[in-house]
Amino acid sequence: MQSLQTLALGTAPTDIEKAAQILSDGGLVAFPTETVYGLGGDARNDLAVARIFDAKGRPRFNPLIIHLPTLGAARQFAQFTDTAERLAAAFWPGPLTLVLPLKQGHGLSPLVTADLSTVAIRVPAHRVAQAVLTAFGGPVAAPSANLSGKISPTSAAHVAAGLTGRIDAIVDGGDCAVGLESTIIGLDGAPTLLRAGGVPAEAIEACLGHTLQRGGDGPKPNAPGQLASHYAPGAKVRLNASGKEKGEVLLGFGPCEGADLNLSPAGDLVEAAANLFGHLHRLDALNADTIAVSPIPETGLGRAINDRLRRAAAPRPCP
Ligand code: TXA
Ligand code: MG
Fold first, then answer.
1. What whole-number distance in Å separates Cα of residue 275 and Cα of residue 260?
2. Which residue owns the Cα nearest ligand 1 atom 15?
3. How far is the CA of 143 from the centre of ligand 1 (A)?
4. Per-residue pLDDT tens over the stretch 229-280
5. Mind listing the pLDDT tens digit for each residue in 4-51?
6. How far is the CA of 183 from the centre of ligand 1 (A)?
């Protein structure tokens, strides 16, 4: 990836405005929350979200948490059940993330939700996070601001050590008080602990008046993205296609003849990632027997794209 000038911002009003402007322009800004520093991008902008995965070097498009300043703002994106309302009233703003069914017309990039029908939402309490989110005025997708596989950052210096040159700005708001990621509760069905974190499970159980189902320490069993054949389109998928055969539509990459859609004619992997889910949906709607896909290099974001395409091409369970 090209090297960026990473701007060091403080918490003065002009700095917060600058951070919000960078987000509006599709750039990436790391900012403090009470749990860990998040790497934020506009959750409605496919390219901004693709850049988050690229900057972190994530080998997979696992779904991201969206951050909003208030419960009222969060209600625009997800369906809040009575249980969700109760937990939000008790623990927001704070280190709790709720996974809820998406609302019609949510406008989020499918890369944020990994094309699932649910979205993870958090309203952080940190005053600097609140200031950035309020100034921006939209949903901010933010995983922890570290390179994939490294420890989550609890200071601006940690963020800078990993991500300088890879993101547009870092807002330095001091050390994070909690130092541990948010607790994630799945509410698409019986309330389930998907990840232990900043709010103890016992406090959530006391609020609900019953025990939580355990999804294991980490969202694996409930993150269907981990299953081999999830996200499969209706059509079959054929990888590494050099051209299209009878009954096929072709999803191209790079200079490519006869493509019905092209992930990136210029061969740019960030652009390709930004287009991946949208293009697959569009081609699937053509009702072809098979979607053939040009080879994608196994470097940078190409690894995450290929991971997702391999899942789409995996043998399906019998209907
Ligand atoms: O404290 C935190 O939660 C930090 C700060 C920055 O807010 N963020 C964070 O994000 O830890 P990240 O991307 O590192 O972790 C998000 C987790 C992942 O394990 C992902 O699988 C899960 O949330 N997740 C997101 N959307 C989901 C969904 N729709 N269903 C199930 N799990 C989901
Ligand atoms: Mg993380």
1. 14
2. 143
3. 6
4. 455 788 999 999 999 999 999 999 999 999 999 999 999 999 999 999 999 9
5. 999 999 999 999 999 999 999 999 999 999 999 999 999 999 999 999
6. 9
Q: Are 304 and 53 in contact (CB under 8 A)?
A: yes
What tokens appear for 290 in the block?
């098979």
Q: Which domains does the chain have, with CATH numbers?
A: 7-214 (3.90.870.10), 236-313 (3.40.50.11030)
Atom of ligand 1 nearest to the CA of 95: 1
Measured from the CB, is residue 38 less than 6 Å from ligand 1?
Answer: yes
Q: How far is CA 40 from the centre of its chain?
A: 10
The sign of the torsion formed by the CA atoms of 114, 62, 77, 88 equals positive
The ligand with the least distance to the CA atom of 219 is 1
CB 86 within 8 A of CB 208: yes
Nearest-CA residue for atom 12 of ligand 1: 143
The answer to whether 64 and 109 are in contact (CB under 8 A) is: no
Which helix (H) or strand (E) segment holds residue 313: the answer is helix 301-313
pLDDT more than 70, % of the chain = 93
Contact of 173 with 87, CB cutoff 8 Å: no
Mean pLDDT for the chain?
Answer: 93
| Token pair listed for 179 | 């130092």
Single pTM value for the model: 0.92
pLDDT value of position 234: 84
Q: Nearest-CA neighbor of 99 among 183, 41, 9?
A: 183
Report residue 226's pLDDT band, with 50, 70 and 90 as the boundaries.
very low
For residue 290, report the distance from its CA to the centre of ligand 1, in Å.
33
In the three-class reduction of DSSP (H, G, I as helix; E, B as strand; rest coil), residue 221 is classed as helix
Pocket test for ligand 1, best of 29, 33, 65, 178 (most atoms within 8 A of CB): 65
